[in-house]
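Hi C.,

You asked whether I'd gotten around to modeling the 423-residue construct. I have! Everything is below, sequence then structure, no commentary in between.
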Amino acid sequence: MSSTAKLRSIRCTACGAPLALHGGGHKILTLNCQHCGAVLDARKEYAVLAQFKEQQKPDCPLDIGMQGKLKGVDFTIIGMVGRFAEGEWVDLLLFSPTHGYAWLSYENGHFTFARRIRDVPTGDIWLLAVKKPLYVGNRTFKMYERYQADITYVAGELTWLAKVGDSAEMAEAIAPPWLLSVERTARETELYLCEYLQPADVAAAFQLTEALPDRKGINPAQPFVSPRLEAVSRAARPFVLVVAVVMLFIWLFMGGEEVHREYIAQPDLVNGKVTKNFTIHDHHRLVEMQMETRLNNAWAYLDVTVQHNKAEIYSFGKEMGFYSGYDDEGYWEEGSNTAYAHFKVPEPGEYTLHVQESEGGEGDLAEQNKPPTALTIAIRESYTSPYYFVLLSILLAVVAIAHAVARGWYESRRWAAVTEDDD
């Protein structure tokens, strides 16, 4: 990209090193030598105002003199300021002959683009608690944090006299991808509207050939971006409703038809009982058997055999138990007196069941004493199970809310540092 300003150079009046002048405009007050740390007065023949020989250049993939197009504007990096609070970051002063000055900040692999604004916030940002709202123009921000920042490095052309060791109070409020930054010194207070930029966009703007460092942590202004997860979640939402309607239809109209109901008394249940005959007409669909006991603080194991023409077709067991009582939190109960079994028969015809209570326990000791209980059996044919639709609905619901859950987890990480400090 060709520069829109004519590049000139001078020699540092302190060390003699060549310094580039990038045409930073009439507001430039100082030129800072990155070689010897001298601060030169741009308006008085580059006289030395101060010198900081021990300053160390911070890590940054961008440097003074680089040119790039941001927000459709050609900018040149003309100055660099290193700052430190709880961590180190770099503020890069940008200049455009047509659009003036802007800032590009770099911290832990994150970039934000900032321009000075004149809008007055509604509310005192210096008094707001974390997450309290703050209004600027038509945007609503949430208070994020306040801290003290010190200058650790200066280089290039700057619009004010910046010295290593200078300190400023900083306050930030966020509305991702936007961030309101307020900087206050003893002399003035300045407001900046910052926008988070994706590193790939910055790399493309400045035509960087080397890969940028990986981002660390979540920047206060960094928006939650997960287009694939959002698309999948959005696609799943209508199907949740469809499956719910299907399940409702099954429960209302496909629960089957009862063909047999029988009561088995406790003595018969202990000794084993063969039920009366019942007829199954539709052998292509499931048969549902519902078993209901009268257990109280006890459990029982039932052996069940399905018979056709006195021949065994299926054999299975069901354990049931029901417990209840009172404690410090009040009444409680667990278990159930009802159990279900589903099976298919090989052909239409008459069938019987052999049912027997083979094991059981009663009371706290749960001794093997076959607790007294009766059993009611109900048989339904042409039954359609909603089991797989329930599983599908759960899966779809998880997918449908996955984006919202991920966003919530992301936001909790964003606020963790400042809310923990606030606590």
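If it helps when you're writing up: Residues 1-5 have pLDDT under 50 and may be disordered.

Thanks,
B.
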